[in-house]
Design a protein that fits this description.
The chain is built from three helices and seven strands, in the order βββααββββα. The chain has helices spanning 38-45, 50-55, 119-134; strands at residues 2-9, 13-22, 25-30, 60-66, 71-73, 82-87, 90-95. A hairpin with a 2-residue loop joins strand 2 and strand 3 (25-30). The longest helix has 16 residues, at 119-134.
Length: 141
Amino acid sequence: MLFKTWLLQGIFHSAPGYIQIEGDMVSLTLVDTGTFGKRKLNALLKRNDVFESLTNDETIEVFQVSRKAARYQSPWYMLSGGGVVSFSGKQYKLSFMQPQNTKFPYQRLGIIRESDFTDFKDGREFGKRFRLFMDGQDNPW
């Protein structure tokens, strides 16, 4: 299963990507730099090649973790449409709803029609089901 997701930092920075769920594994892959500058994005992910790779139309896997090894929290103010994945001393703030400052580059995934997606409702629904999945429910989809 794939679902569009934004990696967030603070109130200004977001980068589009997708969450992928395969069995018990959850991964986040970025497809674009979003509002991040080179130094900020590379520092956030502690890699020197992230920004340049994304600007060259490559994707970057941010993490891959078993749901059993991770913790997911969705604060009330995210309206179930996002949250924080934590594991091994790392935290990643995610949104399943499009931030106003970063449009999702559908063309990077081979998707042409944006009208196939309803952002707010779908993001909240996915967030609710993602929380159930991360809490151990086997098939919330």
